[in-house]
Amino acid sequence: MRRFLSGKYASLVPYVPGEQPRNIQNLIKLNTNESPFAPPESVARAAARAAERLNLYCDTEARALCEAYAELLGISPDELLPTNGSDEILYYAFLAYGDDTRPMAFPDITYGFYKVFADIARVPMRVIPLDSDFGIDYNDYMNIGANAVIANPNAPTGIAIPAQDIESILRANPDYMVIVDEAYADFGGESCVKLIRKYDNLLVTHTFSKSRSLAGARLGFGIGCKPRIDELKAVKNSINPYNVNSLTQAAGIAAIESNDYFMQKIAELNTIRDDCARELRAMGFTVLPSSTNFLFFGNGALAGDVLYSELRARGILVRHFQAPRITPFVRMSIGTRAQMEFVITNIRDILTRREGT
Ligand SMILES: *Cc1c(COP(=O)(O)O)cnc(C)c1O
pTM (2 decimals)? Predict the structure, then answer.
């Protein structure tokens, strides 16, 4: 099969993204933590205006975008590196900071892409188990002799740890990088962006895919002190200098200008999430405490893959991971109020029918 593929990729196991069905008309899609809300119209208008100049290459530095996001975060534009989704900056970080003597350490239960990045970047990895409550114990990351990659809040658990705990990890590993993936921080976690000038071994990553309704545009950021960003820029400019296309740069700026809109939607989703968690607990589910736009929940009496299939049969798409410790759980993104009411009704019905049999 792989007749021409280099032997160095013979054992590559690619990341498996959540299903993106072609026909989502009769489907409630709650499997990849997208926002159920479209971005404001100003975003599409900005992208359409940028489309008039598609004959020209985009700004490799995305300067206007960096200025806008730096202002929002209260940092300097040269402390930012925009990328094609945050997956791209995470990959660059594995390339830039990992090698045989500098492994990448991350939890056993976390974003599945880290393992794949370690694999393709040929970097050894060290897997550090979550504690028995599925939390990250910062004590497990003291003097580990490795770079650490911490999703905060973590996925798919949804659990956040305080910035103070990350600070302890930064201080305990001053000669190694600590990469904090803040894909969901807008929904409740405490951001570590405020620490980038205090710790030169910190890289924070952000994405516009979740809280800012731009999953399809592919926009992420690396955030760190200028020397770290300069190193990562050198990697980026050696692979893909035009990594963020001009439509996405324009859409990103317009999204930043609509920050209030997104903050309002985040607050709305958080309320729906907490209501939904309460209903699930009342039905007997274990629901991990979420600081994100998804819930990770399960019920000892109902296997996670069964719940997944039952929901799928009713047009509701969630995510189930066939991985040690978490098979009883499913991960469900938070949709609109109406969608979640439909989901809760269906879950109640699934439980009732199973009790009846
Ligand atoms: C969604 C997600 C990302 C990456 O998202 P992009 O769309 O590539 O920006 C990174 N980390 C975690 C934990 C995520 O859930």
Answer: 0.97
